[in-house]
Design a protein that fits this description.
The structure is a homodimer. Chain A is mostly helical. Chain A is built from 16 helices and two strands. Chain A has a domain of about 240 residues: Farnesyl Diphosphate Synthase, CATH 1.10.600. Helix content of chain A is about 70%, strand content about 0%. Chain A has a two-stranded antiparallel ribbon with strand order 1-2. Chain A is globular and about 60 Å long. Chains A, B: Keywords: Magnesium, Metal-binding, Transferase. Chains A, B: GO terms for molecular function: transferase activity. Chains A, B: Belongs to the FPP/GGPP synthase family.
Chain lengths: ~375, ~375
């Protein structure tokens, strides 16, 4: 459900130690895939949004970055289209160009679901900025942001209900199931944030991240596989690939949330620590059983000055939180690759999926 | 999207002048239909809710009246099942018992959508009581009430995606379109409440009521027709029937909101006036061009004491708001009957639909 509020990864290509080995040209391949996905999906998305009643359309177009708050056209910036690109790459890997073309409408549906959750999450989390712009609720109010989110969920399922492809029914069922998992993930996230720093386990934090972030990436890949008429085992492998890649993505995003360069992330340094977020590196540190873990728990309970943030970050690092997160991200990426190799043994055919997975986890800290 | 917060209509059978003529036994027929719908749909609903992740399930079961806030079983009270009963009555009228049986899952989906909108509307409207119990957001907080609503919308579409009946795809498309219309209706309602008493026309108030209340009743009837394999014209006539009956229902509900007996409605007398709601009788009064209209506008702007409510109600009545609403409700019911007669010429077959429509509009003021 989360999306990085950082700048586009193309601006920060420096690889890190914890990353899977990079081959030259891969970043470029992912960028091309994302651009092609955007080009294929945007007309379907625009037509779907244009079908909304005027007030809902206005909020949606603002949220997607296609209109300013006053309704005048804006230059876009509707996210990086990672989820639609995964739908299309999965369809292509398992069924070639024909399956890719057939899956465009479903790719737009997945992007609509993603954006519905962003609209609602921003209301619940009181997040004021998204994609470098004021969030919809700050502009239109809570009620209209909730209603626009509701309408986008309906529009996503509407797109699939209007799709005569034989895979559309299974895709709709999977997407609806995924929405329910995303809701449970967001619930777990907000519930965990209300608990004390010593009351959260690493296992439940990982489960929350899988539900909140991994589920929709997995669903995107699985839906692509459905449009390629893949068998159950391949659909499951693609789902697992997306989930593992999603967890790797979340781990790296959490590392960036603590140690990211503010000039690149667009967020103040240590923003996640200032908000006392129980992100994955922090929970790993708190549950490490080290002396630094005890120090961190005390700091999380008492230190409230801006100057303390650097000390907290250092303590998370001393307790092993940063190393763990980077190693875990690499491990998840390795698992993701195993899953995709199971369903798509030809490395050439799997290339697009791997390039996208590496792209989302290859963001400079 | 609204649902009366009044007691069950069975307690208050006294007919009013503006109503269509009552035939003996009709109230009983509707009660039986509602009970039968509840009995058919509840097992599907319960199984669907039981499939939700624990935290979402808990909120949903509380909202449906099947659990107390602490998770212990409660005696029910999950509304009157009017919408599922309309789905089943429409299927039955056009396709007999076989179509009725086939439509049970779709009837549960319609009820889930209705309840998703109630959960979200209560958050937006800050309504603290629903079906004589504290609303979900007052018990679980805004975020969880929003998430539970999101999950119920997904669950509704999930039910239809898992339905192999040939009508399921068209039903899903119609239900998703209806959700979008409900969102637009709720938006119009909240937007109109923010405007001054002189800035709202009767036409837009009627359009809002149709989107907010009529749309889902129409959708319920149309979906029932789809499961009876009805042609486009009959589906459209059933949709129009539900919309007209829904408007009649809203008009009567608004009359009750002003002149209803608090012992029967469970709301304090004049609650809608105290909240300065721009309900249909009030807008009709305000736009009547009478001397009383001007008095009412002045009262709506200045009178804030509880003692003024009776005077405001009297002024709405003097400006013709009550008579107009009751005549309009009767007119809408007549149109509803014409629509149903077009699709179901046999009065015997149409009896269930007519009984339900009369039931929802036959509530004592």
């Amino acid at each position: 459900m989360t999306e990085p509020k950082a700048g586009p990864p193309t601006e920060c290509p420096a690889p890190r130690a914890a990353e899977p080995e990079q081959r030259p040209g891969e970043g470029h391949e992912a960028t091309v895939l994302l651009e092609r996905a955007r080009a294929a999906v945007d007309p379907v998305l625009r037509a779907a949004l244009d079908s909304l009643p005027v007030p809902m359309r206005r909020i949606a177009l603002y949220h997607f970055g296609w209109e300013h708050a006053d309704g005048t056209p804006a230059g876009g910036g509707a996210g990086k289209a990672i989820r639609p690109a995964l739908v299309l790459a999965a369809a292509s890997a398992l069924g070639g160009p024909e399956a890719r073309t057939a899956a465009v409408r479903a790719a737009a549906a997945v992007e609509l679901v993603h954006n519905f959750t962003l609209l609602h999450d921003d209301v619940m989390d009181r997040d004021a900025t998204r994609r470098h712009r004021p969030t919809a609720w700050t502009v239109f109010g809570d009620a209209d942001a909730i209603l626009a989110g509701d309408a986008l969920q309906a529009l996503a399922l509407r797109l699939l209900a209007g799709d005569t492809h034989p895979a559309a029914r299974a895709a709709a069922a999977r997407l609806a199931d995924c929405v329910i998992e995303l809701c449970a993930g967001q619930h777990a996230d907000t519930a965990m944030e209300r608990r004390g720093p010593g009351e959260v386990t690493l296992a439940e934090t990982l489960a929350m991240a899988e539900a909140k972030t991994g589920a929709l990436l997995g669903c995107a890949c699985a839906i692509g596989a459905l449009y390629a008429d893949a068998g159950d085992a391949d659909v499951a492998a693609l789902d697992a690939f997306g989930r593992e890649a999603g967890l790797a993505f979340q781990l790296i995003d959490d590392v960036i949330g603590i140690w990211g360069d503010p000039r690149r992330t667009g967020k103040p340094a240590g923003a996640d620590l200032a908000a006392r977020k129980k992100s994955l590196p922090v929970v790993a540190a708190l549950t490490s059983g080290t002396q630094a873990a005890a120090e961190l728990a005390a700091l999380y309970a008492t230190a409230h000055r801006k100057e303390d943030l650097e000390r907290i970050a250092l303590t998370v690092e001393r307790a092993g939180g940063r190393d763990w997160a980077q190693a875990e991200a690499a491990d998840r990426m390795a698992r993701a690759m195993q899953e995709v190799a199971r369903a798509v043994p030809d490395p050439e055919a799997a290339g697009g999926l791997l390039a996208l997975a590496e792209f989302v986890t290859r963001r400079s800290t």
